[in-house]
């Protein structure tokens, strides 16, 4: 039994070492990728549910790795956040987005994702507005997506930041709504344009519907309606989900049903 225990702990050590090496490699790779600016935005349409009009796009981060091909945020954002490198990645990413905006290729707005720590760091708002200005991007075409965590830590400061952004025309979307420890009482205090209803609830709509998902989506829509905040359903994958969201009064949708992220904008057309 003793030998067996040692075996197990040795195997465990080995696995730990392999994992640590992998993470270290990824961190070194990430540093190199930052020097090379190996990042690019992909765009996914956000659509008005009632008539399929494309109102904007969400910019989603992609890393073109020299050996491993296209990497998705899930594969490197953890390492990026732990090492603090994600902020540099984000600035490179935002600059690409601003160039697209300046080129005038997109119908409607483009939203960018901001991690909570990045949002709370130093001079985020000034830097963002400065970079947009430098690139010739109209801030009124820009929106930022943040989660609730970004707001709750230092609420007065967060409020000042959102107000400054709004003064310049940058509206705010609250991402992954419903998954956090939603302290609903704060919602009315912040200038928030829209709640993005997390895809985990949206995927419980349509056929094979979950009663709890339906109840939650209903509650979020009622809350948003009361506060005069728009709603965007994330992860819409089927026509049934679209139909149900329409019946429930959700204004906007995003998901594979409407279009996958791609390196080109959806033309300003309608998507049923
Ligand atoms: P998110 O902000 O919640 O973005 C939505 C994710 O859902 C995206 O994954 C998108 O490709 C995926 N998605 C869209 N429609 C559907 C659908 O119908 N079904 C399913 N199953 N998935 C769908 P992605 O691109 O892999 O991004 C993952 C996360 O990485 C994002 O979640 C966001 O939190 C983060 N992220 C993305 N871009 C950036 C960035 O530029 N900076 C930072 N800091 N984080 C980013
Ligand atoms: Ca998002
Ligand atoms: Ca989301
Ligand atoms: Ca998310």
Counted by DSSP, the helix tally is: 10
Order of helices and strands: HEEEHHEHHEHHEEHHEHE
Q: Which class of secondary structure composition applies to the elements?
A: alpha/beta
Distance between the termini: 64 Å
Q: Tell me roughly what share of residues is in helical segments.
A: 40-55%
Extended strand count: 9
Question: What kind of sheet is the major sheet?
Answer: 8 strands, mixed, barrel
Shape: globular
Low-confidence stretches: none
Integer-rounded radius of gyration: 21 Å
Bound molecules: ligand C2E, calcium ion
Beta-strand level of the residues, as a percent range?
15-25%
In the sheet with the most strands, the strands line up as 1-2-4-5-6-7-8-9
Protein name: EAL domain-containing protein
Organism: Luteimonas deserti
Domain EAL: 23-272
General description of the model:
Residues 23-272 form the EAL domain. This is EAL domain-containing protein. This protein has helices spanning 2-36, 73-83, 86-103, 116-120, 124-135, 149-152, 155-167, 199-202, 211-227, 239-248, and strands spanning 39-48, 54-65, 69-71, 109-113, 142-146, 171-177, 194-197, 230-233, 252-253. By secondary structure, the chain is an alpha/beta fold. An eight-stranded mixed barrel has the order 1-2-4-5-6-7-8-9, surrounded by four helices. The model has no long low-confidence stretch (mean pLDDT 91). The structure holds ligand C2E and calcium ion (3 copies). One calcium ion is lined by residues 175-176, 196, 234.
């Amino acid at each position: 039994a003793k030998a067996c225990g040692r075996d197990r702990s040795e195997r465990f050590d080995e696995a730990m070492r392999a994992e640590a090496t992998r993470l270290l490699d990824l961190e070194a790779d990430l540093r190199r990728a930052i020097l090379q600016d190996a990042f690019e935005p992909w765009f996914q349409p956000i659509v008005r549910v009632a008539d399929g009009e494309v109102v904007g796009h969400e910019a989603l981060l992609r890393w073109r790795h020299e050996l491993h091909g296209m990497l998705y945020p899930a594969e490197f954002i953890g390492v990026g956040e732990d090492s603090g490198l994600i902020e540099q990645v984000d600035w490179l990413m935002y600059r690409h987005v601003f160039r697209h905006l300046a080129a005038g290729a997109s119908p409607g707005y483009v939203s960018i994702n901001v991690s909570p720590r990045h949002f709370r760091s130093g001079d985020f708002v000034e830097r963002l507005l400065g970079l947009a200005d430098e690139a010739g991007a109209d801030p009124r075409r820009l929106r930022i997506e943040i989660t609730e965590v970004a707001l709750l830590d230092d609420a007065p400061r967060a409020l000042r930041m959102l107000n400054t952004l709004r003064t310049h025309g940058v509206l705010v979307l609250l991402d992954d709504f419903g998954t956090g420890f939603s302290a609903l009482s704060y919602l009315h205090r912040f200038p928030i344009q829209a709640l993005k209803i997390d895809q985990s609830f949206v995927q419980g709509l349509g056929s094979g519907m979950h009663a709890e998902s339906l109840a939650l989506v209903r509650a979020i829509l009622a809350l948003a309606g009361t506060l005069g905040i728009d709603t965007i359903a994330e992860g819409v994958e089927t026509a049934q989900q679209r139909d149900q969201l329409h019946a429930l009064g959700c204004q906007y949708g995003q998901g594979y049903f409407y279009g996958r992220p791609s390196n080109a904008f959806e033309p300003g057309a309608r998507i049923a």
